Amino acid sequence: MSERAAVLHGVRDLRVEEVEAEPLRPGAVRVAVRATGLCGSDLHYYAEGRNGPNVLRSPTVLGHEASGVVTELGDGADPDLLGRTVAVEPARPCRRCPTCAAGRYNLCPSGRCFGSPPVHGTLRSTLVVDAELVHPVPAEVDPAVSALVEPLAVACWAVRRADVLSGSSVLVTGAGPIGQLAVAAARAAGAARIVLTDVDARRLATAAGAGADEVLDTTAEQPEAGSFDRQLECSGAPEAVNLGALVPGGAVALVGIPAARPAAPDLLAAAQRWEIDVRGCFRYGPGAFRTAVSLLRSGRVDLARMVTSRFPLEQADRALGTALTERDHLKIAVLSEESA
Questions:
Q1: 41-55 pLDDT, tens per residue?
Q2: Buried b / exposed e along 122-135 (16+ C-beta atoms within 10 A)
Q3: Strands across the sheet with 277-280, in order?
Q4: pLDDT computed for residue 339 by the predictor
Q5: Strand pairing class (228-233; 246-254)
Q6: Distance from chain centroid for Cα 3
Q7: What pTM did the predictor assign?
C-alpha cells in the first residue's frame, strides 16, 4: 500500500511523493495523520541538511509534532484506541537499557525519534506508532492545535526540570514558540511573576498574548539582577544564560539547542559562588505528555493562538520556506487532505 509523504532528499530539496506505508507491528497502532506542526529541527534539516550532530544521509520524511486518528490496531494494542483522536509522542525509547530502566526514557542512548534522520517522520498520510505513545485528545479540537501537545510537553518538562513552583518568579529567555509555551506552562504550574525576553523584534511582536507579566527587548533593557528564582532558557543563545538575574540558590533549565558559540566566561564561577543549578532539558520525560494533554483539555493553555498559518501536505515545501523566512509566524501546520 502506498501513500503520500514529504521526503527531504537534500538541502531545500523536499518532494511530496508516493512512499510505501509502514507495516503494522504488534503493540502498535496505525494513525491517519491529520496535522503536523513544523519545528526548528525540521527547518534545520531543510535548510542545512543537519540538526546539530545529526546529518541527513538518505531521503527522509520530516516532521514529529503530529495529531491524527487511530485507524488500525496491531496485536496486543488497546482496543479502546480504535477510532480515537490522538496526539503522537514521537520519541521511541528502547525500554531495555539502564537509562530506560531508571525511568529516564527521554535520555535513552538508543532512542529514535520521528523525523530525525534516518527515522521517517509524520509528514505523511499514515504513521505506525507504539500504542503507549499515542495520547487521546478531544475529537472536537482542531487537529493543528492537537499537534501542539508535543511542543507543549517540551515546555511542561522544562518547568518540571527547573522546579517551577507556586509563587516562583521565572525568567524565560527566547520568545519563539517554545519560549511562549514555557510561559504558559510556568503559569499553569503556579508561577507568580514571569518575564519573557528576546532580541528579535519580530518575535517580541508575537509575544503579547503569551501571558507573561512583562516582555523585554534585551537589546535595550536587561532583566533586574537577583530577582528570579528560575530561568527557562529557550533561545539556544549561550549569552542568554543569565545567572546574574537569579537569586542565590536559583536554577536554570537549558531548553533551547545551544548555538555553536562559547558561553560567558564567568558562567561557571557564578554557578559555583551562588550555588546556581544548571540543568539540561531534553525533550520530555515521564508524565510530561500527560500534563500537556491535561492542559489542552482544561483550556488553561491557549494553543490555538500559536497556529499562525496552515498548508496542505502537497505544499509542504512552501510551508517550510515560509517558516524559514517569515519570523512573525509561531507555528505553521501542514495538514492532510482530510483536514486541509
A1: 999 999 999 988 899
A2: bbbbbbbbbbebbb
A3: 214-217, 193-198, 169-173, 228-233, 246-254, 277-280
A4: 65
A5: parallel
A6: 26
A7: 0.95
